[in-house]
Amino acid sequence: MSTLVPTIIGLNEATKGARDQEENRRAESRSRRCHLVATCEETTGTPTQRQQVHNAKVYLDKDYKIYIIKQPSPSMAPFNGQYYTHPAFGQDNSAGLISMSPEEPPLARWVYLDKETKQLSYGNRKDSEENVCGPFDWTEDEQYVTLEGNEQWLAVRLPDDVRREQEYEDLGLDDDKAVKGLWRLYFDREGNSLDLPEGTETMKIRLKRDPVEEEEDDDSF
Q1: Where does this protein have compositionally biased stretches of type Basic and acidic residues (predicted)?
Q2: What is the pTM of this model?
């Protein structure tokens, strides 16, 4: 029996080493900055809606709201962030989400869900703590973002958004000045609980993490 003791100890140490290595890998992956990309099923929405939303990046605008769009305005900056320790969730957590903002100079801002409108927004710590600041996480395959353990993300296009784009088109604005195909990023916490204007378009989506390339990863938080 005594000859088995070193073997058992060795197995325990190997198991612990593998577990520690996996935890370190996950921690490194969660701290890696990424963009976010909206994806949807082939059967979701109309062909035009899918063309506008599928594989469109997530952007922050200077109104402190977060959008999905393929042709952003100059005032927007792509989501460029990571999971981060939020004081609302205790020690050693990575349940918060931060991103560089489109402000001048760019600032690291907390991403949160507006508890009234259910639109994803960004701001300072106080803003996040007064709303739904997490927990943000990822799916089992580490590819998609979750909030409160769910993927109830929605791309939302309000009637005012459609009307504004039509006005820009009527004014004959240059393509680089006109915002086209703008969708807002929402999260339906309870399911079918969003109070949206009549005529609003909605699409169920997923948010895929797209790691930032090294040459892009110049700014530090």
Answers
A1: 16-31, 201-211
A2: 0.85
